[in-house]
Amino acid sequence: MNTRVWRGLGLAAVVLAGGYAVQGGVIALPDRDSLGEWVVRTGPLFLPALVSLAAGFTAVGGPRQAVAALFGFVFGPLAGTLLSTSAALCGAILVFVVARHCARMHLSPPGPRSRALVASMRARPMLSVLTIRLLPVGSNLLTNWAAGAIGVPLRSFVIGSGLGYLPQMLIFALIGSGMAMTDLLQLWLAVALMVVATVLGSLLLRRGGHNECSVKS
């Protein structure tokens, strides 16, 4: 079993430990109903402002998984998944556009792993971005920047990122929602989905000839 799968399993173990800590009262979380009422009272501009803030957070390298968990906690798994995915995708596109205009990369970057990542993105842009997004660890910011700098087509980047983001955003929105309700069944479902997504991403990485790539998001 390769390193990526072990990292995914380690993250799953942390999630379950957190769930048991919440259910056992070791970690106290705010009441979700009270948070929902506060969101309603803040007015119609709150939601766009929150999504914009989350997009900026992920654009500068903040973990999108944390955004998904927060949105899942406040809005529930379905709305949390859709809102956090939209935020992460907006942040990714922002970095992609900036890199495309400011950091064109015509030469091969230093280091075998970076060269392998660039080569795979140039050869199979949509599949490469999709595969990288499925894996639960690594640098989202670096992937966005590299894709823009080497001239990956915007359509391929957006489709690959959107589809690749969805499984993890659903997983962490389920985690956030499960923490809010201290629902261990929901947490176990999230862990199972995390393991499946990690294994699938690793298989796609191997099958697509990306074995040397270690930059993931």
Structure report:
It contains ten helices and no strands. With 217 residues, the protein is mainly α. Helix 9 (154-181) packs antiparallel against helix 10 (184-207). The model is unreliable at 20-29 and 210-217 (pLDDT under 50). The chain is 77% helix and 0% strand. The chain has one domain. The chain has helices at residues 3-23, 32-41, 46-59, 64-75, 77-102, 112-123, 125-134, 140-149, 154-181, 184-207.
In short, what is this structure?
The protein is 77% helix and 0% strand. The protein has 217 residues and is mainly alpha-helical. The protein has one domain (3-207).
Map the helices and strands:
Blueprint: H1 3-23, H2 32-41, H3 46-59, H4 64-75, H5 77-102, H6 112-123, H7 125-134, H8 140-149, H9 154-181, H10 184-207
Helix pairs in contact: 1-10, 3-5, 4-5, 4-9, 5-8, 5-9, 6-7, 7-9, 7-10, 9-10
Sheet with the most strands?
none
Low-confidence stretches: 20-29, 210-217
Average pLDDT taken over every residue = 74
Structure annotation, total helices: 10
Helical residue percent? over 70%
What is the structural class? mainly alpha
Overall spatial form: flat
How much strand content do the residues show?
A: under 5%
User: What's the total number of strands?
Assistant: 0
The domain tally reads 1
Index terms:
77% helix; 217 residues; mainly alpha
